[in-house]
Amino acid sequence: MVQGQRKSANKPDVKTIKNEIEKILKQGGAPDQAKLEKLAKQYAIQQTVSEPKKESLYKTKINRTQVSRASLTGKKLTGYIEKLLGRLEPKMDPETVQIVNKIEQRSDTNSNIMSQLSYYLYLIESEDAALLLGGRTILKDPLNDLATNNFAAMLTSCGAAPQAIPILRGLIPQNQKNAMVLNNLGQAFASVGMRDSAMFYFNKCLMLEPKHAMANKTAAKLSADAGNKTQAIEQAKKSLEGEITLEALELIDELDSSPDKFEFLAHEKNIPDYFNLYKFKKPSLQRKHTDAEVVRAEQNAFLTEIDRMIEQLNILIDEETKISLIKSQERVQRTQAEAIEYGRISDKLFSPMNEMAAKIYASKYINRDIFDELQKIEKTYTSEIEYRRQSYANDLNSIMVQYAEKKKAYNCDAMDGSGCKMLEKLTLEECEAKNKRLDVFLDACATAAERYEQRQLQLARERFFFHSKWGYMMGHDPHRANANHYHAAKDYLLSIRKVVGYAPEQPFCKQLKELLKTYRFEDIIKPYCPINNQFDIGAMSLKINCTESTLTIKLDHFIEAAELGKLSKKAAFWLDGMKLQFKSDHVKRNTTISVIKTWLEQSVEVPKMLTPIRWKAGAKVEVSTTAYITIDGRGQIADGGLKGTAMTTAWSGVDSDVTGAMNQIEAGVEMGLGFNSGAFVSPKGMLAELFTGLGT
């Protein structure tokens, strides 16, 4: 039940014990199990397990006749207990005895509750009360083996191992398969220096529970004391598999001088699958060209959630670090004051466990080997994707060349439309061939990504398991420990963020297929339009054709109509050549609003003598910069940005001073950068017709 003998500097007074017990009795008589567990962790105690005091280590010479060979049960046991209590009770504080009497007098207090209360008293360091109540529990119910075991374990921990041995011997015949009882008897023998007897019972215990922490740890101490360092180290490691204790760690640190002596702690088995434990949903890997939108949505949702959690952890890390810093400063100030006043320092900033955890935290496997492997698998994954992409690009080029050759024999000029039908068929076949090759590429990428992500998640969970555990134990106060744990969690999230997968690939000809639902193929690639006119009315210009309508308002026209003296030179400069334009694209169903600044505009007209009466013709070169925003058919912003345009226009039509109808042709190039469309360079007018590929 008890681990080691403890210092009693912080023992509670009788009044505190009385209040605690009365509170428990009012709540039903049994101590709260959660509180028992918390106290057990606080005092490094394991229920039903005893361990000898370190200072008595096994070299202590005792008179073996002091250790009874008796095996006590029944009346012999109760008589023996009565004698022990008879020596104990007169030495106790009368008020403490009254507390025990009150517990025992409760009519509903059975032996199990009494045993638990005895354990509770031990945990709060009221050993005398714990032993008195534990002994009376046996007198009340001599057949309660658990209560008997606990009482004997407390005797061993309190330095009375010779008195505990005959009690534990009496339990052995009925508990040959009980590792708890076997361990406690081994601990009692170890306390009195009877190494062989101790190892006999430890071995029996370890045959039942090979990872029994206490049995392995004390066996390791006995082996080290006997000069068997190798066996002692192995036993200490086994002890740590059952429970992390400072004593086992210190034993390994003392016996093993190698730099990697704690590396075994970095190779834990049965590490939790945190990814599924915390219900992360990994985005699907795109294997088909039809899955692009679904995969993109899953990737965005995954990254958004991960980034949200990282931001929360950053806040927690900052808060805990600030509190820890304040607490540390307060401790340093108290320590300085104590040193000045008393000439001593009782409070160390770092505990022995903090220092031991720091040694373990510097694991080569976790901090160097895993890091190197993460870089290696990422490089391998990236190289494989790049190789697959290059092969895919080469095959796409071959498909395009193949179908370009097939399309040479056809055009849309035939009256019966047969040429256009063949072009449509070949274009759709080309799209299908490209999409099939895309699926092969995506499937290969998915297979490579699965291998990468599986290893990435495994290494990430190993690092998190190790860093969260030892980083927490390295914290010199609870807030620093919490900050270290949150740091480990943040690193884990940054690692699993990489399993988002590769960028989705859009299917070929998706837009074309959508347009074919509404338009004919020949209308898409070379739309027929009987309307192509421009009307100029003062400062406004309206251009209309079958694909788009454009209204342009020349702002510099208003400068001429205003008194120039009322405008600054800077305002006049910027208004000069400035236009406001509204363009409606009838095919794409969107509207673009633009502010255009013309930097160069040169026109040349054919002399009137060379043209019929009231007829004019000419050409114009224009270089401009445009700020624009595009709104789609649903009223949402589709794009926006800046672009530069160089255009050449030729025109002819009826001459008029106020209004007229003109026919014109345009050719030029446009380049720009949009927040959605990205960087682009595109031909305009006749150049667009010449360079637009079919089905691409």
Walk me through this protein's architecture.
The protein is α+β, with helices and mostly antiparallel strands and 696 residues long. The chain folds into three domains: 14-171, no CATH class; 289-511, no CATH class; 529-691, no CATH class. 55% of the residues lie in helices and 14% in strands. The chain has 24 helices and nine strands. The protein has an eight-stranded antiparallel β-barrel with strand order 1-2-3-4-5-6-7-8. Strand 4 and strand 5 (590-605) form a beta hairpin. The longest helix has 57 residues, at 418-474. The radius of gyration is 44 Å and the shape is elongated. The two termini are 78 Å apart. Residues 1-9, 39-62 and 692-696 have low confidence and may be disordered.
Oligomer: single chain
| Overall structural domain count | 3
Q: pLDDT under 50 segments (min length 5)?
A: 1-9, 39-62, 692-696
Largest sheet: 8 strands, antiparallel, barrel
Distance between the termini: 78 Å
Shape: elongated
In short:
With 696 residues, this protein is of the alpha+beta class. It has three domains: 14-171, no CATH class; 289-511, no CATH class; 529-691, no CATH class. It contains 24 helices and nine strands.
